[in-house]
Specification:
about 350 residues, alpha+beta, HIT family, subunit A, 10-stranded antiparallel sheet, 3-stranded mixed sheet, globular, binds zinc ion
Length: about 350
């Protein structure tokens, strides 16, 4: 980042997955992307016709679990009415020439996050958020235990139409698949290579840098300051056990990752104290995003070490985390065709704005 606040135009390599890069281009007028249209948020608490509101339980497929059990549930898990994967087919995998097919076996479930129809994450109570992530953890454990063919259980949330949410009532989804999704596979593979080379977890290295590292780079011929890096500037929110970071090379302008400060590969091993601190960091981070971006539509994904014997050696190299990706612009053909995402806000400026946001006492 330039000290004088000049525009940036540089390609940044993702330190975890070096095959991924981002073009940070902040020049004034450099707006290759169309802004995502802001939509009025549906902030009603109860909607008579909504299948996810309390009292309408018979409008969803028979429920898998409710917490607490009964009519006064706070969180409810139901099968997805339109699953992308199902357990109704169990054909053997097929290979024919170059065409390899893995049967679309799996589970697709919906977690109704909160009884309040249009509530946003940052408006949910901390203990509710801790409970929600505990419910994810419990259900992930049950799904892994239910079938050894399931290699990965992905928890994610789409919030707002731009993020792909088709039902306005706040909810998240759990998809259990017989394959490890490519994004996770890439992270697993590259962090494993990093571990072999440096005997250290790349995520832990990034956290160490984010918390402590500062450097000044001088121009060798003129002796002038060419670049000042204060990596601490990437920290958005810090708890006792978790940190929210704006990645140095992030695909989305306002993308934030939350990671445990202590190395932990498997989300299933997080403790109750971990969940409580995580909930606080998540709630404050979402409040900052809401303050700065306003009515933010986003996706979040939970990335944890996949299950199966081929991942047994990843305990020291992989580090679970949550990626929050606000959808403020529509990816262009250039981005989709090249895989090179363009960020028109510098990650440093984004982190600074988020840190400076007044979110009151929490
Ligand atoms: Zn509803
Ligand atoms: Zn680590
Ligand atoms: Zn990830």
């Amino acid at each position: 980042m330039s000290e004088t606040g000049d525009s940036i135009r540089e390609i940044r390599i993702n330190p975890i997955v070096p095959t991924e890069s981002v073009l940070v281009a902040t020049a004034r007028g450099m707006r290759p992307k169309k802004a995502e249209e802001q939509v009025e948020r549906d902030s009603r608490t109860h909607v008579e016709t909504c299948p996810f509101c309390r009292g309408n339980e018979e409008r969803t497929p028979p429920q898998i679990a409710a917490f607490p059990d009964g009519d006064d549930w706070d969180i409810r898990i139901v099968p997805n009415l339109y699953p992308v994967l199902g357990d109704d087919r169990a054909q053997p995998n097929i290979a024919f020439g170059l065409q390899q097919v893995i049967d679309g076996y799996g589970r697709h479930e919906v977690v109704i996050d909160n009884p309040s129809h249009g509530i946003a994450l940052h408006e949910m109570r901390e203990d509710h958020l801790a409970r929600l992530f505990d419910v994810y953890r419990q259900r992930m454990g049950e799904l892994y235990a239910s079938d050894p063919r399931l290699k990965y259980v992905l928890v994610f949330k789409n919030f707002g139409p731009a993020a792909g949410a088709s039902i306005a009532h706040t909810h998240s989804q759990i998809i259990a698949t017989p394959v490890v999704p490519e994004n996770v596979q890439n992270e697993v593979q590259h962090s494993r290579e990093y571990q072999r080379k440096y005997n250290h977890c790349v995520f832990c290295s990034l956290i160490d840098e984010a918390l402590t590292y500062e450097a000044t780079i001088y121009d060798r011929s003129s002796g002038q300051v060419r670049r000042k890096i204060n990596v601490g500037q990437y920290v958005v929110e810090r708890g006792e056990r978790f940190v929210a970071i704006k990645p140095f090379a992030s695909r989305f302008e306002w993308e934030i990752h939350i990671l445990p400060l202590q190395h932990q590969s498997d989300f299933l091993k997080a403790s109750g104290e971990d969940m409580a601190d995580f909930a606080r960091v998540l709630q404050c981070t979402m409040a900052r995003l809401d303050k700065v971006v306003g009515g933010v539509q986003y996706n979040f994904f939970l990335h944890s070490v996949p299950h199966g014997s081929e991942f047994d050696d990843c305990d020291s190299s992989y580090h679970w985390h949550v990626e929050i990706c606000p959808r403020t612009s529509i990816p262009t053909g250039f981005e989709l065709g090249s895989g090179l995402f363009v960020s028109t806000v510098s990650p440093e400026a984004a982190a600074e704005a988020l840190r400076a946001a007044d979110i009151g006492d929490r």
